[in-house]
Amino acid sequence: MFKVLVSDPISDLGIQQLHDAADIQVDKNTGLSEDELVAIIGDYDALLVRSQTKVTERIMQAGTKLKVIGRAGVGVDNINLEAATHRGIVVINAPDGNTIATCELTFAMMMAVARQIPQAYKKTVSAEWDRKSFVGVELRNKVLGVIGMGRIGSEVAKRAKVFGMEVFGYDPFLTEERAEKLGVKLGTVNEIAAAADFITVHTPLTNETRNILDRPQFELMKKGVRIINCARGGIINEQALVEAIDKGIVAGAAFDVFVEEPPAADHPFLNNPKIIVTPHLGASTVEAQENVAIDVSEEVLHILRNEPFKNAVNMPPVPPVVLNKLQPYFNLGEKLGRFVGQMADGPVSEISINYAGELMDVDTNPLTRYVVKGVLTNHLGHEVNLVNAMHQAKQRDLNVTVQKSSATGSFTNLVTVTLKSKSEERTLAGTLLAGYGERIVRVGQYPVDISPEGTLLLISHNDKPGIIGRVGTLLGSNDVNIASMQVGRKDIGGSAIMILTIDKEASKDVLDQLAKLPEIQNVRELTL
Ligand SMILES: NC(=O)C1=CN([C@@H]2O[C@H](COP(=O)(O)OP(=O)(O)OC[C@H]3O[C@@H](n4cnc5c(N)ncnc54)[C@H](O)[C@@H]3O)[C@@H](O)[C@H]2O)C=CC1
Ligand SMILES: O=C(O)C(=O)COP(=O)(O)O
């Protein structure tokens, strides 16, 4: 039974599939402090949040069973991603479900600021009939600057076109073709600042976007410009905005988000008649909340049940075409890593991987994660997973290098993994054989043909008559059954290896007895 903690108000209808799942127990406990969360999180396999819960390193440290943190929404700035990656906790979000809700709020804010609806409402309900103070501006024929042309920014741009606005967009990933398709002119932040009558931001908050609109940009702006932020507090410098209003540059602003949420009672936005504010309502529609909760619940179920999931925030996405080509190799990659990892004696400084044949022209990065995970599993057990494998390698100064080549011998594909340490190199090669699945085809310098399954004995010996019989007799007399056996040698009478698949693990005592047999150099038991 997996336990899921929902620590922010998330749509019950959206998480119904979690309630319905026989292997899931859902507890809803919202509004908890960090200390309160730390006290209970140790019981849970998954944590579901929106933007209120700050998922700190302390919480993750206490969440020893945590496998996944699900964010029912887009922004994950309330989750310490580095700490999650370090601990191998998958962080997923639900990026698509609230796009329209936030886009529509942005539009509502733009119109509200153009016509001063909240200010007019306030006077009217206090029985003041003031028509003079609220002469607004139209959107038609105005220039809208959109900084951040992702999901929400693009939807805002589309709607602005219908309102007869001219749209300038800035986004490092906005291509000319896409801009043209959307009817958007490309511009830099400063060009947008100088040209726009309305500016709206739709980026995440990053080191680059923090204060992307600051004093120098406000100085460039046309008098009467209106500013909207329904993305993240801090993208626009709050103090600089207030100054620009005081200077008569900015005619009005609409903010749904703040550097600190909720803003302090003396926050300069709260009593400024030119600034309208809402309490982070972008995603707060019935539809969006259901959508994001459904999306995040599905993914959480997949992750808990060890099923393939789409994209994690702390793992690079794998495009479907790449996934289709690579998926059959994942098991081989991990098994090769586990096998070669158990062959190494000293501390390893490099994992060198060569992908050959069919794998030459594929983005093999996702497969590399499996290999590295396999190598590290021997030492780190469940602490390593696909999320943190590369991170764990880096932390241990373990260099991962990848080469591609066309040389596969007689195979159509070949994955060769070499572990290098100061004193030795261990190499293993495997292939995916049509109709036979994964095979290990080379151990060190010896050609072999082994299915990478179960428990194996890897025995280095001198190629002398009678040695195989002695090994068989010793194992048999200790009740260890041999399921299959392979011998690899380069030259008759030279050094050789024997690889046995055994039905149960051999005891330390049996391994010691094997090592003492004449002509045997080394005995290793491997578990795959
Ligand atoms: N107010 C609210 O309740 C909500 C706020 N949001 C916030 O809205 C923002 C946008 O969300 P989406 O459109 O779904 O995200 P998205 O990821 O689809 O779009 C963000 C865009 O920003 C661009 N970007 C990144 N750095 C940039 C830079 N330095 N300059 C210009 N563009 C840059 C990216 O290339 C991307 O295209 C996020 O911060 C999200 O957290 C989202 C939903 C609800
Ligand atoms: O999805 C986002 O990025 C949001 O900002 C929405 O936040 P919320 O889920 O409403 O707390």
UniProtKB/TrEMBL annotation:
GO terms for biological process: L-serine biosynthetic process. It catalyses: (2R)-3-phosphoglycerate + NAD(+) = 3-phosphooxypyruvate + NADH + H(+); (R)-2-hydroxyglutarate + NAD(+) = 2-oxoglutarate + NADH + H(+). It is an enzyme of class 1 (oxidoreductase). It comes from the Bacteria. Its EC number is 1.1.1.95. Pathway: Amino-acid biosynthesis; L-serine biosynthesis; L-serine from 3-phospho-D-glycerate: step 1/3. Keywords: Amino-acid biosynthesis, NAD, Oxidoreductase, Serine biosynthesis. Gene3D superfamilies: 3.30.70.260, D-3-phosphoglycerate dehydrogenase, domain 3, NAD(P)-binding Rossmann-like Domain. Transmembrane segments: none annotated. SUPFAM superfamilies: ACT-like (SSF55021), Formate/glycerate dehydrogenase catalytic domain-like (SSF52283), NAD(P)-binding Rossmann-fold domains (SSF51735), Serine metabolism enzymes domain (SSF143548). Catalyzes the reversible oxidation of 3-phospho-D-glycerate to 3-phosphonooxypyruvate, the first step of the phosphorylated L-serine biosynthesis pathway. Also catalyzes the reversible oxidation of 2-hydroxyglutarate to 2-oxoglutarate. This is D-3-phosphoglycerate dehydrogenase. It comes from Paenibacillus aurantius.
